[in-house]
Structures are given as structure tokens and as C-alpha cells.
Design brief:
With about 240 residues, this protein is α/β, with parallel strands linked by helices. The chain has 7 helices and 10 strands. It folds into 2 domains: about 140 residues, Rossmann fold; about 80 residues, SIR2/SIRT2 'Small Domain', CATH 3.30.1600.10. The strands form 2 sheets. The protein has a 7-stranded mixed β-sheet. Strands 5-4-6 form a 3-stranded antiparallel β-sheet, with helices on one face. β2, α6 and β3 form a beta-alpha-beta unit. The N and C termini lie close together (about 10 Å).
């Protein structure tokens, strides 16, 4: 059974109504990154940061997986699939994907401020300021903020190094170190990438190691729920 790694970004969740990080009108528009997405922001105003992620969590819980999430999950009927996502939502899980690496954390979970290995599921949308870990330290959102290491990066690299097929969906490949995963793709197999928004009905097919090579354009229908990839791109 061939192995597929699917690398996803915010564009795939935008189709479920979750606004993206960089798009005009995105959810970060009214906040500077330094106010809500850095360790310094938490030290300066933890209540603001907590409130910000509580609102984001509420939106995630109200959102539903879209056809792209479901199509990726159905690939498991024919392939060994690993999803590597930059997204902090749980839409891949709810769509049915079983092996997911979250590079930037999970908004439905909390972690200890002192012991990052202590991670807990959040019941509902609200993480309260007085909640603590089992060792008595405050809990914060389980999010990898700017300036922090990406603990899952090594696992993600190993998956890319050993895959047969690499799909890149819904990301502009501008956020590092995550974007650097493309450099680990083996040089002898097809790589597919979509534009950052699934509203553009185009799938780009290219050959590694560099995505700057010429692209062949095929209909996005190759990622439909029924018969993923189909005759348009036989795998």
C-alpha cells in the first residue's frame, strides 16, 4: 500500500468558515501578532490571550468539515495516509482522518505553562483563567506561538522523507519552519499542491524538489469525495 502525506494549511479550513491568518479580513486583523500569539503576549496580558483563543475555539466547534477534509479521510481506503497540518482546528479528526500531526498545536486542548508535556482536552469552548495542571500551574492554550519551537517538526520531516506521494493543500508556504517540509520530499515522485483557497477550482501538479517548476493544471474535482484523484491523476 502506497503512503501519502497530505500537508494542509488554513485555506482548507477557510471553506468551513474559519477565516485564514493572512487573508484580508482574517481573524487576526484586529490584533497584532505580538498581542495574542507570542509568549510575551501571554506574560503581558494573559486574559486577553485567553479570551482571544476562547473565541477562536468557539468558532472551531461550530464549524463542520468540508468536502476536502472528507476526501482526504477517504484516501485511507486506498493508501496509508498521514495528514500534517498547520491548522489548530480539529476538522481533519472530525472528517475521519486517523493519523494527524498538528505542527502548531490544537485549539481544543490546553497545556501547562510550566510543564509543556502536560496536555489536556478542553471541555467545551472556554478555558478559564483559574484552571491549572496537575502540578498546580496555570493552563494556557495548546498553541505553538511565534518564537516557540515546533515540537512536532521532526516527526513531520520523517513522514515526508518516507512518503510515496506528497499533497500540499490550502497553504501559501510562507510560514516557517513548516513551509520547509517541501524540501524534504523525495525527488522522484509527483507532488500536488493547491492554491491557498479551495474556492479556486484548480489543482497544480508539479515535480519536486522545487515547486517553482512548471505546473500542469487539472480540475479540483480530482479531490472529490467519490473516487479521490480518479482518472485525472492516477496514483
Amino acid at each position: 500500500m502506497k503512503k501519502i502525506v497530505v500537508f494542509t494549511g488554513s485555506g482548507i479550513s477557510a471553506e468551513s468558515g474559519l477565516r485564514t491568518f493572512r487573508d484580508a479580513g482574517g481573524l487576526w486583523e484586529n490584533y497584532a501578532v505580538s498581542e495574542v500569539a507570542t509568549p510575551e503576549a501571554w506574560e503581558k496580558d494573559s486574559e486577553l490571550v485567553q479570551r482571544f483563543y476562547n473565541e477562536r475555539r468557539k468558532q472551531v466547534l461550530e464549524a463542520q468539515p468540508n468536502a476536502a477534509h472528507k476526501a482526504i479521510a477517504l484516501l485511507e481506503d486506498r493508501f496509508k495516509v498521514t495528514v500534517i497540518t498547520q491548522n489548530i482546528d480539529d476538522l481533519h479528526e472530525r472528517a475521519g482522518s486517523s493519523h494527524i500531526i498538528h505542527l502548531h498545536g490544537e485549539i481544543t486542548k490546553s497545556r501547562s505553562t510550566r510543564h509543556p508535556e502536560l496536555i489536556y482536552p478542553i471541555a467545551g469552548w472556554e478555558l478559564k483563567m483559574d484552571e491549572t495542571c496537575e502540578k498546580g500551574f496555570p493552563l494556557r492554550p495548546y498553541i505553538v506561538w511565534f518564537g516557540e519551537a515546533v515540537p512536532a517538526m521532526d516527526s513531520a520531516i520523517q513522514q515526508v522523507l518516507t512518503t510515496d506521494i506528497f499533497l500540499i493543500i490550502g497553504t501559501s508556504l510562507e510560514v516557517y519552519p513548516a513551509a520547509g517540509l517541501v524540501d524534504y520530499a523525495p525527488p522522484s515522485f509527483p507532488t500536488a499542491t493547491t492554491t491557498s483557497s479551495f474556492t479556486q477550482a484548480t489543482l497544480k501538479i508539479s515535480l519536486p524538489p522545487k515547486l517553482s517548476r512548471s505546473f500542469q493544471f487539472v480540475p479540483l474535482s480530482v479531490l472529490q469525495v467519490i473516487n479521490p484523484f480518479g482518472p485525472a491523476h492516477a496514483i
